[in-house]
Amino acid sequence: MGIQTAWFEDRIAAAVAPLLPGFAIEAVAEIDSTNTELMRRARAGHTPPVLLVAERQTAGRGRLGRPWQSAQQSEDGAASLTFSLGLPLAPRDWSGLSLAVGVSVAESLDPSGDAKVALKWPNDLWVDDRKLAGILIETAMPHVGRAEGPAAPRYLVIGIGINIGPREAEGMRTPPAWLRQWRPGVTAPEVLAELAAPLVRGVQVFEAEGFVPFAERFAARDALRGREVQLSDGSVGLCEGVAWGGELQVRTADGLQMISSDEVSVRPRGMAF
């Protein structure tokens, strides 16, 4: 199967390469998972900065190993955008990275806030409680013998899946939203070209300064703050927003709980996991 889509590779490379020397963009027609491929490369020691975009993923993954499949191609172009950005990164603290990435993507897709793209902690973008996009972050330590520690360089892989056009809700935990609901005619390549450079800049700000520069911007789009939520461990409480380190703050019968993204999942009460 050959590539059917023009992905504005030259335009993206021109915008990103000054930020990431050695950067390359690769487009493929079909792959199991863009994240899986970049993680394979990193573990084999191949770690240049790269953006890998696929017209179709056959084994896409979301958080906690959940499947995320590309939507079917439609007459007006790809109904979804699936890509991964890989680059070496050495922040002092990794806490809140998925939230910072979410802020960057939401602001690129909905800069004015008119479309009300909200951020559902820790890694989803919602519109009216429907899922527009998901983020999967993974890291690898590619070089044996490198000293580990808070600032040890690792290879970061950020996978992003965005619904561009309509998709079926069957089998999805959260009903889907899609970008063409408020941007008719927009294409996956156009969206990728809009996202790429701001995403890289956001990651570099996070590397230098952590989550703090993103905290208020996240709060402005927080989909859970002020709502009663249920955690996957069964506990229920009132969401009081996100702390400066990216932890979710939930006030339960036992007091204020500070929840990190690797502990539990969370939903507004009444929505199924």
Mean of pLDDT? 89
- Rough outline: globular
- Assembly state of the chains shown: single chain
Largest sheet data: 7 strands, mixed
Query: What is the strand arrangement across the widest sheet?
Result: 1-2-3-7-6-5-4
Cα distance spanning the termini: 36 Å
Helix- and strand-based class?
alpha+beta
With helices defined by DSSP (H or I, 4 residues minimum), what is the helix count? Answer: 5
Question: What radius of gyration results from the CA coordinates?
Answer: 18 Å
Strand content: 25-35%
Order of helices and strands: HEHEEHEEEEHHEEEEE
Number of strands: 12
Low-confidence runs of at least 5 consecutive residues: none
Fraction of residues in helices?
10-25%
Topology:
Layout: H1 9-16, E1 24-31, H2 34-43, E2 50-57, E3 80-89, H3 97-109, E4 118-120, E5 124-127, E6 130-140, E7 154-163, H4 188-209, H5 212-220, E8 228-231, E9 236-242, E10 248-252, E11 255-259, E12 266-268
Parallel strand pairs: 1-2
Antiparallel strand pairs: 2-3, 3-7, 4-5, 5-6, 6-7, 8-9, 8-12, 9-10, 10-11
Helix pairs in contact: 1-4, 3-4, 3-5
